[in-house]
Design a protein that fits this description.
heterodimer, A: mainly alpha, globular, B: 4-stranded antiparallel β-sheet, 10 strands, 25% strand
């Protein structure tokens, strides 16, 4: 087993030692962006916690509830990430065939791969939890031992979450090997949608915002005081962290015992299942012959551009890892509109405020969706890129094709969300039109930025789309996109505010301010559209295969 | 036979401190089969990539069918066909769809595609597999598919990196016959290979590259003459590239 871990350490060392100047720059960029995000989490949490901590009676209960929510979300994310990651690390990893041919026991190979999966699935959540925990500790003015205690709690918690994911993927691979990933991903999509629904129901976030909707204050307090999903490890972690804050060592030992016991039991279950299912699931997944349901592109005239676009659409609907993302998109629309529907819109002020933030939120969603659909478009050419690079098909046309292909879901989603949420919020016609314009312009900006950055930072050697999205280039895109979103929202705020002032009795519409905002928007959006595409084409042309 | 179809002038490619291709000068006329030989890591694949526009040269230039591959890439690429050493085609397309895609990208007229695609698939014994996804093809089948696709647009220059690797004997024989026929029709074939017997039998001229530098470029007969004790191309190759040092080490096996 130690040979296997040594192997990975060697791979890591070799990579670090051989970093080129460009790689070092990318790594530095990744590090800086990451630190920026972590600082934002820290300051956001610190401000919120400081405020809540100052609120009498309800404050500590709200903090408790917030911790439960964060840990429940973390658990779900790591468990789901465990399912997705294990497909690539455990079942379709390129070195599995070689490892299987060595005299290493299958159990050892699996354990090594399971350990890798747990690391890959949980490192990001772990890193994001650190600033959160530090902020909580500072607000609660705890001793240093608190942090050590939290680390002791987090290790079995994350192990338990990732093992849960591995168990699900093991069972899926055992019972659906013939139908391969398509069925598994379909199943997972349904699991995720159900999971999101359950999560929402468990959290009941709208109740936090509407204490007056409950009959009496005591009912609100009892809701806050009630544990969230008591049988899930996230509550054990919440209990453990809270007992550390309160200095209740007996409670702490109770919760840490539950977590460690649960993690050990989950690991034993994983190993037991692996001994029965791993080899069969892996071996049967290797043998297949898949016939296409319909032969597309039968003899009819097509321009090279159309041929490539049709190729991308065909591949999208044949690759279950791609088309199942549409399920996620559907779930996202439902959850978003459900949240809007549940919002308290008692006064015109709140309604207007929500209408404004709605534009920003939809922009936020679109930026993330462009990361999913547009950013990976060039990278998805993968090892077939040699064909296009050696053919008389220009890189400018390639990028245009990728932009057109990837933009379809982003534009549809943006329009559906803005239209449906506008209807639910009962916004005025001018505000609705303004929101529509803002979203349409921002959708174009996000798409061009995602396509451009995706070409500047392509990842051709990938095992899953998630790997492309989470690359340093993906992170750089998302941070830039959020920055762009912030500027856009700030510029749109002015005409919108003017409109409301005018509507509430202002003398006349301040056109001057309106034009200034328009000029600002024009400049910002031209930069967002032109610059990334221009650099993207140059980067693709200079690309060496 | 006089039109120069592949021409390199002091073509050089450096990767950091390593010079993969060093001052390469080639002139290959129409209708010639040119075998490009060399030990592993000598610079063969880098040369193929430079000739097809997959890499940019650090110095010098390369022309294909009279067009500079870097200043007039579209015209040069329209004239050439590439079979890379790793024939990676879109796994989620069928063989037929892949052929159609290549046909459309190279703007092969529809009527010609309609006639040639079934013919080529049948010739490479892929007809029964044409509706299967490429992900379920073996390495050899993928190689045959890429070879079939490259013949679709009637390239004037064929650049092949290990074209026979993974092919069964029947397919290998077919490919060799195709190369001979195409060369007879004036198509220039630039072929990297480790199978010296094929180079010896097919090539009009042989170029040997070693550590990035072209160390020999002649007909097989001329090469044998120069290396006096050589019985075949393998002996010539080993003499030129220094491949006999291992004999002493064999006793340790």
């Amino acid at each position: 087993m130690k040979h296997l871990f040594g192997l990975h350490l060697n791979i890591l060392r070799n990579k670090v030692v051989r970093l080129t100047l460009l790689d070092q720059f990318k790594a530095a960029l990744f590090l800086l962006t990451g630190l920026g995000l972590l600082s934002a989490i820290y300051f956001g949490t610190w401000r919120l916690m400081s405020y809540l901590n100052g609120v009498a009676i309800v404050g500590p209960l709200l903090i408790n509830k917030l911790l439960a929510m964060v840990f429940l979300t973390s658990f779900s994310m790591v468990a789901f990430s465990g399912i997705i990651t294990s497909f690539t690390t455990i079942f379709s990893s390129r070195d599995i065939a070689w490892l299987m041919a060595t005299p290493l026991p299958v159990r050892q190979i699996f354990s090594f791969k399971a350990f890798n999966t747990a690391l890959y699935a949980s490192w990001m959540v772990l890193v994001a939890l650190f600033p959160f925990i530090i902020a909580v500790g500072q607000v609660k003015a705890v001793a240093l031992s608190f942090y050590a205690g939290v680390v002791v709690l987090l290790v079995p918690f994350l192990a338990l979450a990732s093992m849960t994911g591995i168990v699900v993927s093991l069972l899926l691979m055992r019972f659906f090997p013939a139908h391969r990933t398509r069925d598994m991903m379909l199943f997972l999509g349904i699991v995720l949608i159900t999971g999101i629904y359950i999560l929402l129901r468990l959290l009941q976030p709208e109740r936090l915002a509407k204490p007056d909707a409950m009959e009496i204050v005591a009912q609100y307090l009892s809701y806050l005081d009630a544990p969230t999903a008591v049988y899930l490890p996230s509550w054990w972690l919440t209990g453990g962290v809270y007992s550390l804050i309160a200095g209740a060592s007996r409670d702490f030992f109770f919760y840490i015992s539950l977590l460690i016991g649960g993690a050990v039991a989950a690991m034993m279950l994983v190993v037991a299942l692996a001994e029965r299912f791993f080899f069969v699931g892996w071996a049967e997944g290797q043998v297949y012959r898949r016939r296409a349901k319909s032969v597309s592109a039968a003899f009819r005239k097509r321009e090279p551009f159309t041929a490539l676009l049709e190729k991308d659409i065909t591949i999208f609907f044949r690759d279950a890892t791609q088309w199942t993302q549409l399920l996620l998109l559907g779930a996202l629309i439902v959850v978003y509109l459900f949240s809007i529907y549940k919002l308290p819109l008692d006064t015109a002020y709140i309604q207007n405020l929500v209408s404004f933030f709605n534009v920003g939120l939809i922009g936020f969603v679109l930026a993330a969706i462009a990361l999913r659909f547009v950013f990976p478009a060039v990278s998805l050419e993968g090892k077939s890129m040699w064909l296009l690079k050696s053919s008389p098909f220009s890189m400018k046309r390639l990028l245009t094709e990728k932009l057109v292909f990837g933009s379809i879901p982003v534009v549809i989603l943006g329009l559906v969300l803005v239209a449906a949420s506008g209807w639910l919020l009962k916004v005025d016609r001018p505000v609705f039109l303004m929101s529509l314009a803002a979203i349409a312009i921002m959708a174009a900006g996000f798409n061009c930025m995602a396509a451009g950055f995706g070409s500047i930072f392509p990842v051709f050697d990938y095992t899953s789309v998630a790997q492309i999205e989470s690359s340093p280039g993906g992170l750089f895109y998302i941070v830039t996109a959020f920055f762009y979103l912030g500027i856009n929202v700030a510029l749109w705020a002015s005409p919108l505010q003017n409109y409301y002032q005018y509507k509430l009795g202002g003398a006349c519409f301040p056109w001057r301010c309106f034009w200034w905002a328009g000029a600002g928007l024009f400049v910002v959006n031209m930069i967002a559209v032109v610059l990334p595409l221009w650099r993207g084409v140059a980067s693709l042309e200079a690309l060496e295969q | 036979m006089n039109t120069i179809m592949i021409e390199t002038n002091n073509l050089t490619k450096r990767f950091g401190s390593v010079t993969a291709v060093d001052d390469l000068n080639l002139q290959i006329p129409a209708g010639e089969i040119f075998a490009f030989l060399g030990p592993n890591g000598a610079g063969k694949t880098t040369t193929v990539k430079l000739l097809t526009g997959l890499l940019r040269p650090s110095g010098g230039s390369a022309r294909v069918a009279g067009f500079d591959i870097h200043t007039e890439p579209m015209r040069a690429k329209q004239a050439l066909g590439l079979v890379s050493d790793q024939p990676f085609a879109y796994p989620n397309l069928t063989g037929f769809e892949f052929m159609r895609l290549v046909g459309d990208i190279y703007r092969v007229p529809l009527a010609e595609q309609e006639e040639k695609i079934p013919e080529l698939l049948a010739m490479f014994e892929l007809k029964d597999w044409s509706a299967e996804l490429i992900e379920s093809y073996s390495h050899g089948m993928k190689q045959k598919l890429v070879l079939a696709s490259v013949l679709l647009h009637k390239p004037q220059v064929l650049i092949l990196d290990e074209p026979l690797v993974g092919l069964d004997p029947k397919s290998a024989r077919l490919v060799k016959d195709i190369f001979m026929t195409l060369a007879g029709r004036g198509v220039t074939i630039f072929m990297c290979t480790h199978v010296l017997e094929i180079a010896e039998r097919l090539a009009h001229r042989v170029g040997i590259i070693h550590r990035g530098r072209l160390i020999a470029m002649e007909t097989v007969a001329q090469l044998k003459e120069k290396a006096q004790s050589a019985a075949n191309l393998e002996d010539v190759f080993l003499q030129l590239t220094g491949g006999t040092e291992y004999m002493e080490l064999l006793k340790y096996l």
